[in-house]
Amino acid sequence: MFRRSKASQVFMVALGIILAAIVLLPVLYIFIGAFTFNASGVVSRPTLGNFTAAASSMPLVRQVGNSIIVTVCQTVGQIVTAILAAYAIVFCNFKRPQLWMMIFLLSLMIPGETTILSNYLNVTNWGLIDTIPAIFLPYLVQGFTVFLFRQAFRSFPSELRDACAIDGAGHFRFMFHILLPITKSTIIAATINSAVSAWNGYFWPLLVTNSPETRTIQVGITQLSGAESSHMGVVLAGSAIAIIPTLILTLTFNKSLRGMTVAGGLK
Amino acid sequence: MTHTDHNQKEGAGTLSTNQQASADPPARDNRASKKNRSSAATRNRAIGALMLVPGLGLLTIFSFIPLVSVIIMSMQGTDLFGSPSGFIGLENYVTVFTDPSFYSVLVRTVVYAVAVVFGRLVIGILLAIFLTRQFGGNKIFRTLMTSTVSVSVAAASLGFLAIFSPTGIMNEALGKFGLKPIGWLTDPRWAFPTITMVTIWTGLGFTLILLCAAIEAVDPEIIEAARLDGANEARIQWSMVLPLISPTLFYIAVTACIETLQAFAQINIMTKGGPGQATTTITYNIYTAAFGAGSANFGIASALGIVLFVFVFILTLIQFKFMDKKVSY
Fold it and tell me: Which chain regions cross the lipid bilayer (chain A) (predicted)?
């Protein structure tokens, strides 16, 4: 590493600002448009008018609530099922642990757009169409999350595990007091990964919900453009509401995001 | 998965069929402890089996059984209400494969995937090289650019809808240069490239996360040695860094391909597959066949779904080759 001159430092920062502006253009456009676009699509003085218009034409608050419920249930489901399965595969003396891992990885080979057809008919038959549980029910387990935890657990020395067993620590004590605290970074990375994809879901929630009251925010904002007295500024205000939570999450835990690449065995 | 699970080797001490234990003199307490050990292992396996139940059960109900049902549905006809009826063999596949419009959808899907892969790699590499330079504030730029990973495709599509709208910033920029406005999403020639651009963007955040990590993992001494030998910066990046991070490039290519095959939100929100069929890909075709206005045909949609499954299955197999491989330089 060599010291950079002041001129090249200024040049790099200027280039960075230009590149960041281009890469972030859609995000910037959403926020600028949300605060400044008036009915004729021209920039005016910043107001919150578009947000109130969006909230009045759609039950946006309710939809954000729905999205929170879906995100919490789906994330908790994916993390819990993954920790249990990965623990079983790594620590429970199975004769063929890889075989069980393969079954979970097989699920990654099945595109959701294919199984959606059968799941849709099932959910309809169970009378769950247009309910919140229908949105997260098929996604309570995620093969990739099992894989992430299995990779993390495997790096735990099994002599230590045996030592804990001799000391009389049962499975759950070992899990909660020793294993999970050590694999905290994986838990954070996997949680962010699951939460972001749950919050951002679109295709399935669009199919299984009909009424505005059961829609998630992602589907809700796409219905805004058809709403009465709605214009681009209102649509962008809705979009801003839809991306703020996940943006805050990834800006806060930006370091953990990089853990995902390492956890996946990609060095 | 080609690795051997080290737990199997290390955990062998707790298995009942233990060579070493049988080589010991047959003392009574030794046999007792052996029995204890093997019963402990059996108990462990039983507990493990219980722990697998939730995950495997849910996967079976919502992934494996549905796949089998879709295969069955693809060989069934469709009644007036769009529900599956009667076995008709491969008729749906014949219908799909003899439909000339299916080939344009297939070709379009492949072109779309290749263009997105290429775009993400080229733009991603250039940005990642910039973001891994050492200068004051580079961390901030990296955080900003990689945070786009969390922007939902639905919201991004609405943002792009505004950007590419007739009065949006793109046409305004064209006007500044004295050019005619373009119907980015309404002109059949432009809609497809526009959707491709949007799809390149939606995966850019994740691409940058992977690429920055890969470039930083390159041994700085190799680069330093090349620099001392008088290699210029472009040469170092092109003939040293890129080959060294090629496994990551390949992984990005495969995952981008899978993701593009499954792209739905941007197409549904921005163009509805139109104008005409200009932006209809295989996934969007599944949607229109099953849930399109007045054409609910689950049989045809299932056949298309199986075609998509074959694509994704093959690509995921390739992806697994790279997922578990520690790359050594």
Answer: 12-37, 68-92, 99-120, 132-153, 174-196, 232-253
With beta carbons under 8 A apart, name residues in chain B contacting A16.
130, 137-138, 141
- CB count within 10 Å of CB A244 equals 14
Q: Which residues 195-214 of chain B have a CB within 8 Å of chain A? A: 201, 204, 209-210, 212-214
- B17-47 in b/e burial notation, b at 16+ Cβ within 10 A? ebeebeeeeeeeeeeeebeebbeebeebeeb
Contact A20 B144 (CB under 8 A): yes
> What DSSP element (H or E) covers B118?
helix B100-131
**In terms of Cα–Cα distance, which of B190, B268, B152 is closest to A195?**
B152
Identify all chain B residues contacting A222, using CB atoms and an 8 Å cutoff: 154, 157-158, 269
User: Which of B3, B14, B45, B52 is the best mutation test for A, with the most CBs of A within 10 A?
Assistant: B52
Residues in chain B within 8 Å Cβ distance of A41: 165, 167
What is the per-residue pLDDT across B14-57, written as a single tens digit (0 to 9) for each?
333 333 444 444 444 555 566 666 777 888 888 899 999 999 99
Q: Is the pTM of this model over 0.70?
A: yes
CA torsion, ordered A201, A206, A208, A210, to nearest 10 deg? 140
Amino acid at B125: I
Q: Which two tokens stand for residue B244?
A: 């060294």
d(CA B195, CA B200): 9
